[in-house]
Specification:
Radius of gyration: 19 Å
Number of helices: 4
Order of helices and strands: EEEEEEHHHH
Shape: globular
Distance between the termini: 51 Å
Largest sheet: 6 strands, antiparallel
Number of strands: 6
Helix content: 10-25%
């Protein structure tokens, strides 16, 4: 414990022989994660600001080659080369790393495109198929992704996850109660 936070500091270069990690997934029970960098990096939200640490919301951390990628509900939050990460710390009193560990390869046996980046073509096809009535289950099967990834991507693209062709509730006029 460090200042009331659950900490999983990692000596990155010594994680695996040669410092290379591949196909590893760490689930983090959905929490705020503090990334500490080895040097100052540009803030992803404001390139005029340099940071040595950054807080992100994430529930999964994956490793492909020498890159650590952080995900929230199936959507990529950020990605950094392992060599620039000094530590990764889960924040909060109750932040505990999920003990389940599985590899990207394990997940991709069931979902061939799990944790892959979405292309612009995939986004367009997803919206087209959703708007023509394809269910979330059908979309997950077609795209080879988890149901949660389909729902998250539709939400990120502004589509109504509950039904095709309907704008999301946030873009509709609020309904006034009848009293």
């Amino acid at each position: 414990m460090v200042d009331g936070s659950s900490c999983c500091e990692v000596d990155w270069p010594n994680c695996l022989p040669g410092g290379v990690m591949f196909g590893m997934i760490v689930t983090m029970a959905g929490s705020t994660v503090l990334l500490r960098f080895t040097d100052f990096l540009a803030d992803p939200h404001d390139p005029d600001v340099m940071r040595r640490a950054l807080e992100v919301e994430a529930d999964v951390m994956t490793f492909e080659g020498e890159t650590a990628t952080f995900w929230l509900k199936g959507v990529e939050v950020c990605s950094y080369p392992v060599e620039v990460l000094a530590s990764v710390e889960m924040q909060g009193k109750h932040a505990v790393a999920d003990s389940r560990k599985y590899t990207v390869e394990d997940v991709r046996k069931q979902y061939r495109n799990a944790y892959q980046k979405w292309s612009a073509e995939d986004d367009e096809r997803l919206l087209d198929m959703h708007d023509t009535g394809s269910s979330v289950e059908e979309l997950a099967e077609f795209f080879g992704r988890q149901l949660s990834a389909i729902r998250s991507r539709l939400d990120k693209l502004g589509a109504d996850v509950e039904g095709p062709g309907v704008p999301p509730a946030s873009s509709q006029q609020p309904v006034q109660p009848p009293f």
